[in-house]
Design goal:
- The protein contains two helices and nine strands.
- Strands 2, 5, 7, 8 and 9 form a five-stranded antiparallel β-sheet that branches. A two-stranded parallel sheet has the order 1-6.
- The chain is mainly β.
- The longest helix has 17 residues, at 56-72.
Length: 151
């Protein structure tokens, strides 16, 4: 599995939600709460990109990208020519999830709406998750219990 660059189209709209830390809150009978955090890295970030008034040939490139990534199990990588286009440089580490180690994958199939003959708009949703067994660089030594086995 590897990163596959998203087609170079500038989104007309973008929506990003930072993921949350895996945790669970327990409430006692007296109302006191305790929070147990299961990890130190965010997961389940979401990114929605909208592309307005593209030629159908361009929409086909996005659909072909979806098929290729979905079949291979790869993840999506964004750059300044596509998903990051138009966003401030300060947001790039968050939109690309470079510091969190999350990998963008399609949350669902792209949704296409025909506007006029040969012109369409498409909405694409992504979810960012950590891959099991290691970080985004393939390093599997990040497990805090490595070398210890619990029965």
């Amino acid at each position: 599995m590897a990163a596959v660059a998203f087609p170079n189209f500038k989104p007309s709209k973008r929506s990003y939600k930072a993921g949350s830390y895996p945790q669970r809150q327990f409430k006692a009978l007296n109302g006191a709460t305790t929070t147990l955090r299961y990890g130190n890295r965010r997961t389940e970030s979401t990114l929605a990109l909208g592309f307005e008034n593209l030629r159908d040939a361009q929409i086909a490139q996005i659909l072909e990208h979806y098929e290729a990534v979905a079949v291979s199990g790869d993840w999506v990588k964004f750059g300044t020519g596509n998903g990051l286009a138009g966003a401030g440089v300060e947001l790039h580490p968050f939109l690309n999830e470079t510091t969190s180690g999350l990998r963008w994958r399609y949350a669902d199939a792209p949704s296409v709406e025909s506007i006029a003959p040969g012109i369409s708009s498409v909405n694409v949703n992504f979810v960012g998750n950590l891959d099991a067994g290691g970080s985004s660089d393939g390093n599997t030594s990040e497990r805090p219990d490595e070398g210890f086995y619990f029965a």
